[in-house]
Specification:
By secondary structure, the protein is α/β, with parallel strands linked by helices. It has two domains: 2-263 and 465-483, 3-Layer(aba) Sandwich (Aldehyde Dehydrogenase, Chain A, domain 1), CATH 3.40.605.10; 268-447, Aldehyde Dehydrogenase, Chain A, domain 2. Helix content is 36%, strand content 21%. The radius of gyration is 24 Å and the shape is globular. The mean pLDDT is 97. The structure holds NADP nicotinamide-adenine-dinucleotide phosphate and magnesium ion (MG). Pfam families: Aldedh.
Length: 498
Amino acid sequence: MFATIKTPTGREYEQPLGLFINGEWVAAKEGQTFEVINPTNEEVITSVQEATEPDVDAAVAAARAAFEGEWSDVTPTNRGKMMMKLAELMEENIELLTEVESLDNGKNLNQARFDIQSAAGCIRYYGGWADKIHGKVIDTQPGTFNFTKSEPIGVCGQIIPWNFPMLMWAWKIGPAIATGNTIVLKTAEQTPLSALVAATLINKAGFPKGVINIISGLGKTAGAAISSHMGIDKVAFTGSTATGRTIMKSAADSNLKKVTLELGGKSPNIIFNDADIDHAVDWANLGIFFNHGQTCCAGSRIYVQEGIYDEFVAKFKERITKNVVGDPFDNSTFQGPQVSQLQFDRIMSYIEHGKAEGATVECGGERHGDKGYFIKPTIFSNVTMDMKIMQEEIFGPVASIAKFKTVEEIAKIGNGTPYGLAAAVHTKDLNTALQLTDKLKAGTIWVNCYNMLHYALPFGGFKESGIGRELGKEALSNYLQVKTVAINMGGHNVFIGK
Ligand code: NAP
Ligand code: MG
């Protein structure tokens, strides 16, 4: 159930391949496995056990037993301590987790290390919340005593994507465990490895068996079994809007499990004439090309006010020539490969659409090299609002740029897609910034920066970008249900409230 894997740095480690259910490594009941591909060279790294419905059933049974049993006796303080310990163990293993993440996902080592550090930070942050969750006393009338309790929901199914494997693992586990739930988490089929390595730390951190179950598997089988499971009380999902819809439907058709969704985006990055143009260029670069454009909040629609449009496009083009594309294990690399052949093909097809629809290719627009899923950073200018590349989530290193004139016009254009995950405004004028933060319908608005995420700041979508908020105190409510207790202290007339 383990394979010895050698990373490109020469590090040898034991990669778990099994399903982590009830605190143990087990084989898939139906005997299936699937291959894990290295996106840098398209070679098979290893094969992992593939969970199907019977494995999901076993994981749910383990999570239920833990929820009703040992986990319910653990004090909030001790829950917090276990989470702090898990965060510490993640930090102790940061170099291993970083290399596994780069190997499987293709992100560069610096970026992967940053992800693991933030993942550990997130688990620690939520560990701090574990003993700060409480209800209220609510006065209604004499002769009564009323209070609320914030209780965990129960067994939670969590389905995560491949763009930030460890970070999404932490964003999901943190608030669910801090609030006293138990979980069955399915990783993305493209990137199962780092979560399995991190699962080896769960027992060491002291969690009782069955509290955190981690399975590898496919969306259409294991994922569907989670979202339709009668024994799962809540499902949390991050991924595409299309899959989010499917999950919500199957939650509705099964046991009306609670649903939170963190979905796609087509976020506007708005740059005014008075912005510090060099800073705006740097932020626009990070906004779209960070993580190879595989970021739900990517600043994929860049709008530049007409006075600086030509200068901006020239400087932006110049700036991205410095983005080194190549091997994620090379320290000079900024952009590694896209995660899979499927994603590579999807992105290339959007690029072809952009060309066919008449947008100007300022640079890129083709694959990089002849092996691995590499795409050159691509800028399209003169993109109109109706073009596919301005409306749909590409999820790759492709920026679409257009010109605007006024605050009123850009507020309307900024809100002109079904998404509403994020937006950014670059200006030195506080009034302009605040006017737009009012008008833009997005869950996060950055001013003079981009992609500034932190586990203490709530994150999530307006419109079709999602339901609920992850991170911060807000995420706790996704995993809690309120119970009201109303007590008659002995009077006879308390039923008819005044
Ligand atoms: P996806 O289908 O949304 O996958 C995300 C997760 O959902 C994976 O774990 C996936 O399993 C699972 N899943 C798929 N179908 C399911 C189903 N019917 N029931 C339950 N779970 C299911 O995303 P994708 O196909 O990998 O990527 C497609 C597009 O989604 C991208 O181009 C991008 O636009 C968007 N996306 C957005 C985010 C984000 O952070 N918001 C992340 C990833 C992708 P498998 O691994 O087997 O597919
Ligand atoms: Mg892979």
